[in-house]
Amino acid sequence: MNTQPTVDGPLTPESPFAAVSRRAARRAAARRASTRRHTARDHKDDLEGRIVEYLKAHPRSTTGDLAKGLNADRGMVAAGLSHIVRAGDVAKG
Q1: Please, are residues 80 and 51 in contact by the beta-carbon 8 Å criterion?
Q2: 36 to 32, 43, 45, 91: CA distances (angstroms)
Q3: Would you place residue 74 in the very low, low, confident or very high pLDDT band (cuts 50, 70, 90)?
Q4: Angle at 78 between CA 81 and CA 90, to 5 degrees
Q5: Alpha-carbon gap, residue 62 to 56, rounded angstroms
Q6: What per-residue string of b and e applies to 13-41 under the rule 16 or more CB within 10 Å gives b?
Q7: How far is the C-alpha of 30 from the C-alpha of 24, rounded, in Å?
Q8: Which residues fall within 8 angstroms of residue 52, CB to CB, at 6 or more apart?
Q9: Which has the closest alpha carbon to 51: 1, 15, 5, 85?
Q10: Which H or E run includes 5?
Q11: 54 near 65, Cβ under 8 Å?
Q12: Residue-wise pLDDT tens digits, 15-50
């Protein structure tokens, strides 16, 4: 079993056992969180693009039809569809 080395006396900045500054710890945590968000964005499904493609093939589809056809949550499809309509890419009708 490995034992942890001990320090006899006060910690100095040169000491390998010196505590990490609070600012450095916050910055490291923020960097890790930023990387996680970036990775999540990369893996995020392009639902709005899929909606547009589905509507090209099935022009008179309802939100429920879209949700079933895309195997997606109806609420997410409705939100994506409203974004597309507001952007003017698709007209309601």
Answers
A1: yes
A2: 6, 11, 16, 36
A3: very high
A4: 15
A5: 13
A6: eeeeeeeeeeeeeeeeeeeeeeeeeeeee
A7: 10
A8: 84, 89, 90
A9: 85
A10: none
A11: no
A12: 555 567 888 888 988 988 888 888 877 766 788 889
Query: Which amino acid appears at position 42 of this protein?
Result: D
Measured CA to CA, the distance from residue 51 to residue 41 in angstroms comes to 18
Return the higher-pLDDT residue of 9 and 63: 63
Buried b (16+ CB within 10 A) or exposed e, 78-93: eebbeebeeeeebeee
> Which tokens is 33 given?
């969180």
The domain locations on the chain are 47-87
